[in-house]
Here is the input.
Amino acid sequence: MEKQTLPAYQNIRLPLLAEKNVHLQIKRLDVLHPEIQGNKYYKLLYNIRAAKEKGCTGILTFGGAFSNHVHATAISAAQNELAAIAMIRGEIPQPLNPTLADAAGHGMQLYPMSRAAYREKEDPKVLEQLQNRFGNVYVIPEGGTNALAIKGTSQILNTLDTEKDILALPVGTGGTFAGLLASAHSRQLLLGFSVLKGEFIHAEINRLLETNQIRPRCSWQIQTSYHFGGYAKFTPELIAFIKEMKNDYALPLDPVYTGKMLFGLLDMVSRDRFKRGTRILAIHTGGLQGIRGFNQRFGTGI
Ligand SMILES: *Cc1c(COP(=O)(O)O)cnc(C)c1O
Here is the structure.
C-alpha cells in the first residue's frame, strides 16, 4: 500500500470560531489515498504486511453491511494480491449496497453470519472453524483494531501536528484513539467523540492501553454525549449540519463518524469549553464511502 498523496490540511473559518477565537484545522485523512480512506489505511498497513510475511493466502475479517473497514480491507487485499473474505453481520442485502458492491468488485468473498453466530466471533473455537473452512487466512477483528492496527495509527501524527493544543477525533472501537495516545505530545489534549452509546469506551481505552503497553504522555478525554442516539443513528439537525459543512465550507463529512465529531466539537466551542486562542486539529478519519448507502437507506441526500 503506497501512499499516493499527502494528507491535506484545511482551515475552517466559521463565524463561531472567529467569535470565540478558536483556531480549527482539519487533517484530511480522507484524501490520503484515492480509495482506502482515512484511519483504515493506517489500521491495515502493518496487518497486510504481517499477512504477507506469514505467507497467508488471504485476509478474513468481519463487519456490518456498511463497514468502512470491510471496504478498505477488500481494496488493500486486492492491491496486495491477497484473497479477501468478509463475514457480514446478519443478511447480505441483494442487490448489494454500494459498500459491498465495491468490496465484491475488488474480489472480496462475502458470507453472511447470523447475528447469534456473529456475537461469538471472537471465540477461539469459532476462529478455528473459520481457519479450517478458509485455509491459511490472516484474521483481522471487526473494525480492524489489534496491536498492529494501533502501531499503524500511531503514525497518523507528524511533527507539524504536535504544535496544536487539542487533537479531536471520532472514536469507534478506540484503536485509532489508542494509536494517537501513543504518539501525541505531552502538552496536548486528545479529545475523542464516541459514536457509540454508553460509557464502556473509557474502560475499553484503558484495556487497549494496558494490553498494548502504551503510556500516554498527553492527557485525554472522551465525550459520550454526541452519539445522536447510537451507532449510525442521526437527527435532522446532524444531517443539516453535514450538508452545510459540505456546501458552505467544502468539507465533506460522513454521518456515522466525522459528522458527529465535528458537530460535537463546534457545540463545545459554542459552550465556551475552550480557552481563547486554542488551536485544534480535528482528524478527518474518512468514511465517505458509506454516504452512498446511508442516503439509499434513509433518503438523507448528503
Ligand atoms: C472506523 C472509523 C472510525 C473509528 O475508528 P476506531 O479505531 O474503531 O475507533 C472513525 N472514523 C471513521 C471514518 C471510521 O471508518
